[in-house]
Each structure stands twice: as C-alpha cells, then as structure tokens.
Amino acid sequence: MILEIDLGNSRIKWRLRDDSGRLAGGVAGHQELPLVADELAALGAVPGEIWVASVLAGDRDADLSAWCERLWNRQPRFARTQARCAGVTNGYRDPSQLGVDRWLALVAARQACAGPVVVVQAGTAITVDLLRADGVHLGGYIGPGWQLMRRSLSSDTARVRAAVEPPERLMLEPGRDTVQAVEAAIASMALGLVRQGLKWLPAGPAQTLVAGGDGPLLLEHLPGARLVPELVLDGLAPVISADRAPI
Length: 247
What we know:
The protein has 247 residues and is α/β, with parallel strands linked by helices. The protein has helices at 33-42, 58-72, 100-112, 146-156, 178-199, 215-219, 231-234, 236-243, and strands spanning 2-7, 12-18, 21-28, 49-54, 77-78, 84-85, 88-89, 117-122, 125-131, 137-144, 207-211, 226-227.
C-alpha cells in the first residue's frame, strides 16, 4: 500500500491506494495528522511507501518525516520538480522554481488529456498553468485565493468588509452592498485569470481541469471544465517513478 500526501499551505490532502486503486482518503488540517493515523489504524493499513508533495518549508517536511518514521518506520519520498517528466516539459527558465504542486498537476493533466490543457488550482492561491498539446508548459499565473483577497480588503481598508464564510456560488453581477461588491470583484478576477490563460493557448479546443478547495465555485462559469480534486496526488506516481529511475 502507498500513502500519498499533498502537504499544502492551508491543509493536508491524503490518499491510501494499492494496485487495485484508491482505498481511503480525506482532507485534514495541519494539526490533524493524528486523525489520519487513527483512520489508517482503523483500516489496519500499514503503508509500504509514503509519497509526499510539499510546498512547505524544510522544517515542516522534517516533522512529517519524523512522524512517518515513528508510526511506520518509513521515510517518505518527497516529489521534486523536474525539467521533463512523463511527456511534460517544464516551461520555467529555472525549472526548479516551479512549485511542486503545480508540476505534479501538470504531469497528471498530461496523463488525463491528449490535447491542450488549462490547469487551475483554487486554494490559498489561485494558479493557472497552460499546457500545449505536445506537452510543453507555456508558463502560468499565480494570484491570491478567495480568503487572501478577503483578508486583504478587510485588514487594509477602513470601511470595506468582506464576507466571512465562502459563498455557495459565485456572484458576478454588480453588488448592491459592500459585501456583495467584494464577492463579485473576487469572482470576476478569478475567472478573468482563467480566461486570460486560455487566450495564450494555440487555437483549438482546450480542456480545463480544476482542483483546490474553491475549485467547485468556478465550474458553473467554465463550460466543459472538469473537477479533479486529487490532481496533485495523481501526479505523484509518474514523478516519483521518474525520479528514482536509474540514469
């Protein structure tokens, strides 16, 4: 069995799988790792390997490694961004500077789609990455996510207050009060980022894959887009396999 972990800025996503497919999975806060261990123990699951995608600092990775060692006597394998993998060519001037979560999502998108793809991750940040049909990454965009934009307006303006809870659906029409106006602006900026990205792909139909906690909000306004909640985890197998292959 393989335990896969996506260690993000705001939360942890995990999945347990074997050769037959997904066995269990879920989302947890950074302080809730013991709950993940409890769920695995209830399943009688002892991971043979642990694969990790982490966007956090080295000390957080070290804490996770120590946790895995203590529970299962296993050291996790951390995915790293590469110049090329599984038919994808990294579009950054310095490939190592591309976030590993974005790299894994691109590799997974290439596995899932034959043509050009727009990869959207709507979490703490909103990222949009563009992948040509030949697997060449054209680069991307990084912007603040919903909560970052709300907090910025609430803390840095005197009389503008944003909604506390996430909306059930995006509102794009002009707001009739301050909270509505803020939500309409945030939604419009997020969708504008995706639509701007689409303009840079060569002519022809492109598929749009959406991941991240706020991803479902975007789907209604992106015709044909597909929600792939575990897109980052889906990229772990090809990237880890390529990283440990003999040269």
